[in-house]
Amino acid sequence: MPPTERYRTAWDGYWEASSGAPGEPFWDADPALTAARDLTLLTPHADPALPIVDLGCGNGTQTRYLATRFARAVGVDLSHAAVAHARRSDPAGSAAYEQLDLSDPEGARALHARLGDTNAYMRAVLHQSDPADRPGVVATLATLLGTRGRALVLEPTGEAKTVIRSVAERPGGPSAKLRSVFTHDLRPGEVAEGEIAALLRGAGLDIADEGALTLAMSETHADGTPVALPARWYLAAPTAPAP
Questions:
Q1: Are 222 and 166 spatial neighbours (Cβ–Cβ below 8 Å)?
Q2: What is the pLDDT of residues 2-22, one digit of tens each?
Q3: Where are the alpha helices (DSSP H) in the chain?
Q4: Which residues are CB-neighbours of 110 under 8 A, at least 6 positions away?
Q5: Which of 196, 153, 202 is nearest to 53 (CA)?
Q6: pTM
Q7: So what's the architecture of 3-237 in CATH?
């Protein structure tokens, strides 16, 4: 089975077994802890009149928040089941949701043709893609930005595995949220240090800024605080043409 089909099958299985409720997935933290904070890194550089695309939107929790800050928000996901959940969770239609294979250049070009240049939000997507597919995912990001868009890319670092392992090994074993990840064979890979920067530059994007932060999960520790994964963020912009 080709890699994309393997993880499409895995993600559809996961989302089909899910209710789609906000907070049910291990990573699906409240937007107050995620997109709201993250946009403080993006909005100083981005034109709010442009649409924003949430790449790997899942059930649309973050997409719905993005729709309150940009002229238009579109969530895209590899999984048809995820997109169906996102649409059901947004009866007011504050955002739009579409199925998109991020490694498919034709799909990316078609979406850009409909939306024009966009901003983009991509939270913890690349490590879920096989290494061979990552250049294609970042190429889609570049296609969507066009010449005017800006992107915020956030990815866990290698240290995140240690945090997840500690959660899995708590007394009583993994929580239901984490067991569901294991059951459906969602394989979080590791993005090597420097790989994201190289991928962005290889797709014709400049890194306008970057830094370290943590990604809040919906999973909590025994004291009720959110599990947080060490991560890095990148503010990407199309490379300006040479004068």
A1: no
A2: 556 778 888 999 999 999 999
A3: 3-16, 35-42, 61-66, 80-88, 105-115, 134-145, 160-168, 176-183, 195-202
A4: none
A5: 153
A6: 0.95
A7: 3-Layer(aba) Sandwich (3.40)
Q: Identify whether the C-beta of residue 169 lies closer than 8 Å to the C-beta of residue 105.
A: no
pLDDT at position 189 is 67
Give the pLDDT mean for 213-223: 94
Whole-Å CA distances, 28 to 49, 114, 171:
27, 29, 23
Contacts of 85 (CB under 8 A, 6+ apart): 15, 18, 20, 58, 59, 60
pLDDT at 242 over 80: no
CA distance 193 to 96: 34
Q: What residues does each domain of the chain span?
A: 3-237
151-156 vs 52-55, strand pairing mode: unpaired
> pLDDT at residue 51 above 80?
yes
Residue with tokens 């930005």: 145
Query: How far is the C-alpha of 36 from the C-alpha of 90, rounded, in Å?
Result: 18
CB–CB of 128/7 below 8 Å? yes
Residue 28 CB partners (closer than 8 Å, separation 6+): 22, 58, 59, 61, 218
- Give the mean pLDDT of the chain: 93
